[in-house]
Fold this protein.
Amino acid sequence: MSDIATYSGRRSLRNRFGYEERSAIFFLAPVMAVLMSVAVFPILYSLYLSFFQIKLTRPNRTPFVWFQNYTDLFTNELFWTSVRRTVVFSIVSVVAIAMIALLVSLLLNQNFRGRRVLSTILLVPWAIPYVANALMWKWIYDSGYGALNGLLYQLGFIEDYVIWLGDQDKTLLLIANAFVWKEVPLATILLLVTLKSIPADLYQAARVDGASVWQRFVHITLPSMKPGFMLVMIYETMMAIRHFDLFFILTEGGPGHASHVLSWHIYVETFRNLSFGSGAAMSYVLALVTFALSYLFIRTLGRKV
């Protein structure tokens, strides 16, 4: 009876999946195994670690603390400081990226001489790796031989060289400027593709009805660009919230706590304080916030016009 049941089970499996489906499963199985080992397993393991008090300075003592690592975050003043810095950095960066990308995409959507050259130049910041971008801006902001000081000094805007990254009031905005410069090209491409998909008949009908340029922009262009704006807002918000490279290379969270954002706080807690349990807990808080914001953007901007 067991042999008959096994045989019937195999026949039902073959009937359910044809030759092409079975071949696809066979060839995709190694890829899925690799993804499970390098992506899914680390995620689940870090979630497991977040329920333990793991500190490498005492490796033999790792008590199971349930949600204590998560609850301790809400009483940590430095954690809330990093959250506030992250919110400011994200809002400034994402708003600036969206506005600049909108203006540049509207410009590139027009026909003029040199448009292709300008489009090629636009891709240069996007092609530069993140670490190279951070090192470049570190040289630009340098107080001794930086290009920004040299340019402003030659133009007569400053009398002495300024320590740009040493000012707590300017540091976060200067880092946001470097981040915006890197991210604007991709956002521009996404919005430009959305602009190209708007039917020309809508603009022709609006001109016949006597609509001005501003009216066509408000009532046709902006509503039709909602899908592109949704992608830009989701992607750039995720990048801004979890961005780490610029803060590590330019300031290392300083001066003081002026650039101590959440991603830097997670790094310090995990790899400098060697508290892997609380570091994993903060990472999951960051992930949950990112998912919540993405869901909010999809619900608001993803609605049909």
Notes: The chain has two domains: 2-39, 77-301.
